[in-house]
């Protein structure tokens, strides 16, 4: 049986991963689960894992860690064939890095690590024999659409538009945290929900796809598609467009990455022809400024690193009620102004130094 370690098991992707494992009993043995602070659910998950053996006292063999240290992360990674990274934000990079260093099969829902360090992770993976498989629906859709002989001219990532699709800047001025968390088509954790509302999520995905599949940034387009049925499109040199269409159910993408390349029959009911309409419109980069920055600064290697570092801080502040929704953009712009023209990092270590410097500088600003 293949062994698996699940980082971030108590979150949205973590819980859905456990559902997928339950649907395929006997295929994977979970050796470890981690969370940040939800100790009750973590313990409960470890006890109720499908197909796991229990000690005679009814306790689980599965190791559990709250906020694992780098040594604990490396030790857990060492015991598993498959590493699932469902930790949000920059902190997920530690999991991706440990998995790739150890030559494992990394399934990363964490788009942030792939967006800022995907190239470095792939270089390292080429040396260690690690595999990197995306769980993010848009990146997975591109992965599933690209075939060996396909000659592609460009790709399009779809975007539901989030809870504020069609809003003007004036309308965004007074939106609340609750409104921003209420994503219309996906039920996700708080960080990625806010990123979907600002469309910063989409910019991170553009870099994720760029880094994973070597597609030039100027050939990666974004379109608003409110139904969230089409997850990505590939435009071929022959003038055809291939779309990846599924229900908006992350279990499909988790199962695909777990089983790649051989795919089992989908165990969940598929609603065929549930909707007849599919809309595609252009996002408004003046209101959702993240797309404007992508156009302006996309080619600057510092841009995704600064965006990601500042965004982690800004989202935390927004969720605590310390920043308005539009304040997220203003705050990030301060970081872009200060760090965009620094010498870009040539190594992963230099990237980590730049990230830490930005985080330290702007965390200090936050001290009362
Ligand atoms: N949810 C989706 O549908 C979806 C879709 C595509 C991509 N993603 C990506 O998947 C990742 C996870 O998203 P999610 O929605 O599953 O998040 P989530 O619901 O907030 O869950 C996050 C998980 O990671 C743990 N965690 C949080 N911060 C941590 C930290 N600093 N160090 C260690 N563990 C930490 C949490 O533990 P506690 O429960 O103890 O806080 C929880 O187990 C994100 O990068 C997101 O962009 C998510």
Could you explain the architecture of this structure?
The protein is α/β, with parallel strands linked by helices and 368 residues long. It folds into 3 domains: 2-134, NAD(P)-binding Rossmann-like Domain (Rossmann fold, 3-Layer(aba) Sandwich); 137-169 and 179-249 and 275-288, no CATH class; 300-368, Rna Polymerase Sigma Factor, Chain: A, CATH 1.10.1740. Helix content is 46%, strand content 15%. The chain is built from 15 helices and 10 strands. A 6-stranded parallel beta sheet has the order 3-2-1-4-5-6, with helices on both faces. Strands 8-7-9-10 form a 4-stranded mixed beta sheet, with helices on one face. β9 and β10 form a beta hairpin. It is globular and about 55 Å long. 43% of the residues are buried. NADP nicotinamide-adenine-dinucleotide phosphate (NAP) is lined by residues 8-14, 35-38, 67, 86-88, 91-92, 109-112, 136, 186, 188-192, 250.
Quick synopsis:
The protein has 368 residues and is α/β, with parallel strands linked by helices. Helices cover 46% and strands 15% of the residues. It contains 15 helices and ten strands.
Features:
six-stranded parallel beta sheet; binds NADP nicotinamide-adenine-dinucleotide phosphate; four-stranded mixed beta sheet; Rossmann fold; 10 strands; alpha/beta; Rna Polymerase Sigma Factor, Chain: A; globular; 15 helices; 368 residues; 3 domains
């Amino acid at each position: 049986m293949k062994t698996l370690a699940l980082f971030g098991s108590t979150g949205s992707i973590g819980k859905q991963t456990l559902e997928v494992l339950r649907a395929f009993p006997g295929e994977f043995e979970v050796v470890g689960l981690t969370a940040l602070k939800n100790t009750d659910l973590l313990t409960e998950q470890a006890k109720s894992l499908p197909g796991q053996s229990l000690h005679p006292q009814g306790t689980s063999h599965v190791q559990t860690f709250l906020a694992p240290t780098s040594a604990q992360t490396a030790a857990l990674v060492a015991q598993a064939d498959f590493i699932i990274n469902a930790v949000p934000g920059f902190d997920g990079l530690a999991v991706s890095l440990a998995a790739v260093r150890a030559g494992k099969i990394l399934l990363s829902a964490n788009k942030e690590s792939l967006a800022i360090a995907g190239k470095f992770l792939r270089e390292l993976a080429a040396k260690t024999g690690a595999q990197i498989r995306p769980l993010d629906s848009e990146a997975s859709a591109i992965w599933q659409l690209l075939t060996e002989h396909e000659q592609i001219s460009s790709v399009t990532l779809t975007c539901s538009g989030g809870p504020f699709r069609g809003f003007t800047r004036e309308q965004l001025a007074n939106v609340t945290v609750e409104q921003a968390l209420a994503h219309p088509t996906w039920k996700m954790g708080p960080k990625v929900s806010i990123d979907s509302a600002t469309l910063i999520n989409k910019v991170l995905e553009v870099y994720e796809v760029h880094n994973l599949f070597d597609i030039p940034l100027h050939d990666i387009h974004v379109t608003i598609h409110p139904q969230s049925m089409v997850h990505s499109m590939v435009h071929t040199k022959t003038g055809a467009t291939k779309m990846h269409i599924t229900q908006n159910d992350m279990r499909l993408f988790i199962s695909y990455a777990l089983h790649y390349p051989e795919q089992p029959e989908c165990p969940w009911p598929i609603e065929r022809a549930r909707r007849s309409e599919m809309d595609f419109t252009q996002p408004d980069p003046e209101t959702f400024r993240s797309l404007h920055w992508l156009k302006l600064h996309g080619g600057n290697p510092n841009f995704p690193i600064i965006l990601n570092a500042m965004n982690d801080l800004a989202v935390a502040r927004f969720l605590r009620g310390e920043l308005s929704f539009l304040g997220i953009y203003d705050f990030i712009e301060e970081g872009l102004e200060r760090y965009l023209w620094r010498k870009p990092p040539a190594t992963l270590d230099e990237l980590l130094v730049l990230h830490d410097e930005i985080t330290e500088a702007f965390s200090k600003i936050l001290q009362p």
